[in-house]
Amino acid sequence: MSCLLIIDVQNDFMKDGSLEVENANDIIKPINDIRNNCSFDLVALSKDWHPENHISFASTHNKKPYDSIITKSNNTQLLFPDHCIQNTKGSEINKDLIVKDKDIIINKGLDKEVDSFSSFYDNDKKSKTELHDILKKHSIVNVYICGLATDFCVLASCLDSVSCGFKTYFIEDCSKGVSKNGTDQSLQKMKDNGIIFINSLDLIQNK
Ligand code: VGL
Ligand code: ZN
């Protein structure tokens, strides 16, 4: 059984969004091509879903984006512009992305005090979303991951997927990163952890 997991294809990460990822809109077409040509037993879409004054917002701490703070649990929290605030235009999934009625939506980052890059666990690994249980319930073996951003939420979701025991694929042409350096390091980390690199055409041709 296979799952397609689409990470955070939300307006704030796309063209003119508050935390715009360069060329993010280019991933919509290949993801839609996959949706139109391949079938999965499950499709899940994650949403970064923050309350106002979230710990990851620079504005919450009167700091600048890409400064960092040390959290109560002694982790380094990188700070971002305000983004993906619950029920705002910026937190909506991009309107051009195909979303079907049967798709599952996973909200993450709801806790004001703890960020959550991964769609499985928060950054402190203390709480989890419903994703792991849903994948187990559907007897999922293969998880195909893509979306935004390669060097943050896609990386964290890929690593958690592997550590949960799923055979994990990263769909490279359906993902974009924030920084070149961060993305290069993330790709290396994925390779080191046994994540398999594919692109949308591999999926469509082998469907
Ligand atoms: C993300 C930074 C902050 C992401 C979310 O979706 O990759 N990045 N929040
Ligand atoms: Zn966020």
UniProtKB/TrEMBL annotation:
Q: What is this protein called?
A: nicotinamidase
Organism, by scientific name, is Dictyostelium discoideum
Question: Which family does the entry's similarity section mention?
Answer: Belongs to the isochorismatase family.
| Alphabetized UniProt keyword annotations | Hydrolase, Metal-binding, Pyridine nucleotide biosynthesis
The record ties this protein, via Pfam families, to: Isochorismatase
PANTHER family, A to Z: LD05707P, PYRAZINAMIDASE/NICOTINAMIDASE
Instruction: Provide a Gene Ontology MF annotation, just one.
Output: nicotinamidase activity
List the GO biological process terms: pyridine nucleotide biosynthetic process
Q: Which pathway does the protein contribute to?
A: Cofactor biosynthesis; nicotinate biosynthesis; nicotinate from nicotinamide: step 1/1
Which EC number(s) are documented for this chain?
3.5.1.19
Residues making up the signal peptide according to the UniProt record: none
